[in-house]
Amino acid sequence: MKIAIPAETAADETRVAATPATVKDYVKLGLDVVVQKGAGERSFHSDAEYEDAGAFIAPDGPKAVAEADVVLCVRRPEEKLVKAMREEALLIGMLDPHSDGDFFSALNARRISAFSMELIPRITRAQSMDVLSSQASLAGYKAVIEAANVFPRIFPMMMTAAGTIPPTKVFVMGAGVAGLQAIATAHRLGAAVSATDVRPEAGEQVRSLGAKFVFLEELAAAGEGGYAKELTEEQKKKQAELVSGHIRDMDVVITTALIPGRPAPVLVTEEMVESMRPGSVIVDLAVERGGNCPLSRPGEVVEHAGVKIIGHTNMAGRVPGNASTLYANNLRNFLKLMLGEEGALNIDREDEIIAGTLVTHGGETVHPVLKN
Question: Any idea which fold 136-318 has?
Answer without folding.
Answer: Rossmann fold (3.40.50)
